[in-house]
Amino acid sequence: MTDSPRTERSTLVRRLGLTAGLVAVTAALGCANIEAPPGGPPDQSPPFLVRTVPESLGVFPDFGGRVEFVFNEVVAEGQSPNLGLGSGTLEKLIVLSPSDRVPKISWRHSRVTVRPREGWQPNRVYRVELLPGITDIERNRSDASTVVTFATGGDLPSDTLSGTVIDWVAGRPMTKGLVLATLMPDSLTYRAFTDSAGRFAIGPLPHGDYQVYGVIDRNNNTRLDRRESFDSVTIARGTSEVGSLWAIPHDTVGPRVGSVAIMDSLTVSITFTQHLDPYQRVDSSAVRVVLLPDSLPVPTLSLLPQKEHDSLYPRIVPADTAQAADSTTALDSLPPADSVQTDTLELGGPVVDLGKGIVAADTAMQSLLDERPKLFDRLILRLAAPLMPDGRYFLATTGIRNVNGIEGEGGAGFIVPLPPPEPVPDDSLPPAPQDTLDIAPDSLAQPDSSEAAEQ
User: Fold this and answer.
1) I want to staple 339 with a disulfide (CB 3.0 to 4.6 A). Which of 180, 268, 314, 335 is the partner?
2) Rounded to 5 degrees, what are φ and ψ at 409?
3) What is the CATH number of the domain that holds 395?
4) Gap between the terminal Cα atoms of the chain
5) 141-166: b or e for each residue (b if 16 or more CB lie within 10 Å)?
6) What integer pLDDT is reported at residue 84 of this predicted model?
7) 272 lies in the same domain as 379
């Protein structure tokens, strides 16, 4: 006996519902993150690298697969998907050179694989660096980095480039500064990063001439972008020491006046929009000051950085202030500077001065930083005539260079404020004395008639 059409339809609906449910469960399981199995002690060890494919420092003429980083346990895929934009979690941890495109990166359990989007090119040296940051499924983070270098033909690379990147504006070595070594004339660029002390060593690299850049990579895209600070040098083949790269902004226009501040009746502080060439010395002719509205010129004496200005025009301490200081401090009783004891804490060589809060840097690095003067963006203008209270002035500059040698010109107006009103003195006259005579009220009465008759 065959089932009725109604029964067949019910059976088909049940089967379709079961199939859809299985598909949904399978999709959910496929999309779910892998979690650690329950029970047992918690894993507190970060993942470590077991091997790489291919092995580093090899020549593989027909290589067409993927570079693999294999770990001892399952690693996390990351929170951000890898979309080829360089913003994925794993994309931020892989640096593939030489290539200008974001590589294809995939993840599968304990493996992270990499290959260039344009494919492996023949007779080329590749450098694939895995940066610190790989985590396991329990968020234990690895701080180790690994580099795989191999060739798809030709000889094994042998050159190495080393040096230091310094943020000249901040006056300190650049931590995780980007290093770009461009092989000439092929324009193949190899990338690396500096350590916490600003040092780098990149290699082995193909033999040849290089243009080396030290970059402050603000957006962390491993590229030199417009308006990012950098320094560069050309290194001839056979030379391994790059030296120091002093990264600075490379503006295409010169500095302009950003603001003007009045320090006193004869001194004006000029702040520029860019850091200035510390080796340039300009005289007061680079600044023109006029009194408005008649544009009467105001004579100037000097235009100097703050340190030079302070040494030429020392601040005069008022006499009453100096006397007060002398009365409260016995200078002759102070011990010599060499005998003053300060609390110090030794940290394996460098000394932390707790009394002044200054950390003495590594001797070699400090000597390196002292090779060049500190950058500044302010000049102090000394006038030959005092500014008029409530006067309106205009100040213009010309011929002043920024740190990368571009001259600029500009100006700004300013108004001299009125001096504060003098305080009204308190009434110094003593109060009127009160009548203190103790006179009886009866003594103030009129004399009687008998006394008046006698008078």
Assistant:
1) 335
2) -145, 155
3) 2.60.40.1220
4) 166
5) ebeeeebbbbbbeeeebebebebbbb
6) 87
7) yes
